Amino acid sequence: MNGFLKKNWFVCLLALIFAGVSVFYIYDTNHGKLKGKTVNGEDVLYEINAQDVTAAGLYDSLYKTYGTSAVASLIDKAIASEAVATTDEMKTNAAAQAASIIASYQSNYPTDYKAQLEKVLIQMGYTGYDDLQQYLIDNAKRNEIVKQYASDHFDELKIRKISYILVKFSEDSEKTEEPNEDEAARMKAVDDALAGGEFADAARDHSEDSSTAPNGGYLGVVDVNTTTLDEAFLNAALALDEGEVSDWVYSESFGYFRIRNDASTKETLEAGTETTSETNEAGETEVTVGNGQSPYEELIGSYDTSLDEIAMWEKANEIGLDFSGNAELEAALKKYYTGE
Asked: What is the rounded average pLDDT of the residues 61-83?
């Protein structure tokens, strides 16, 4: 359930923003106020790869599927369909995810789970219950576009894979940049462990953050847009070279950090995530299995949700999204996707 709803904030936000915008633009288009290209006497709202979407068609779609959210949903689906091919893996994953979602809805709504699920899908611009797998495939395609954007803008985003060790403030301490005797003693224990061993081992033995210590202090993949981390921590992490460990970083909220930049190049970040196969000298195929998780998916799923709209807008322009002279509608959508 949580996985299914993870990115639905996009549709909900879109509905709120477009409640007083999109319908007005579509309505005005149908009444001749946003004139542009026409096909068979109908105004064309936008075009992708020479395929025209008319005002009448979109107007009808809006009012059949709760209106406002269908505008961006329709555009997103068109972009994803044009830019990303459907793979067997997407179909397989979508089928498994759909089964899990249906089971969850059956548990929560035993008598009308189909109606409840259909309501959610309709609000997201789909026709109903039978579109669940297609929604999941479309979401996977959108995810691929955003991951590729992150990879293409790697240096600009300052993407880093980060681990850390935390020494917390002592109880009833004044929480100052200068550690007290107890804090300093625990910090020295960390420094001694780092001097004689690996960062991950020191983190497991000495970090006082129970959520990351068991994993060798591993935090995740972050970038310059990350807003959920302590500012002093993030600034220090982004300033590190690959493999470098910071001096002690003071956080007025948490305590004292030693931070390690595990990866800040694409090659290092992406290493170990893919399954590869090679032929050895005996002519046998040797398969090396990576962890299977894309670092970019980790980034956009946990620390930088701002890339979604920007990536989709860039891809829309790349494949030729054309509003056929409807400048006001284009401006409204551009503002939503990019904030400009």
From this structure: 64
Core vs surface per residue 253-264: b (16+ CB within 10 A) or e: ebbbbbbbbbbb
| Residue 228: pLDDT over 50 | yes
pTM metric for this prediction: 0.73
What the chain holds in terms of domains, given with CATH numbers, is 2-152+308-338 (no CATH), 160-263 (3.10.50.40)
Q: Give CA 257 to chain center in angstroms.
A: 27
Q: What are the two backbone dihedrals, phi and then psi, of residue 128, each rounded to the nearest 5 degrees?
A: 160, -160
The candidate with the shortest Cα–Cα distance to 267, out of 142, 155, 183, is 155
% of the chain exceeding 70 in pLDDT:
71
Mark residue 227 as left, alpha or beta (left: phi above 0; alpha: psi -120 to 50; beta: remaining).
Answer: alpha
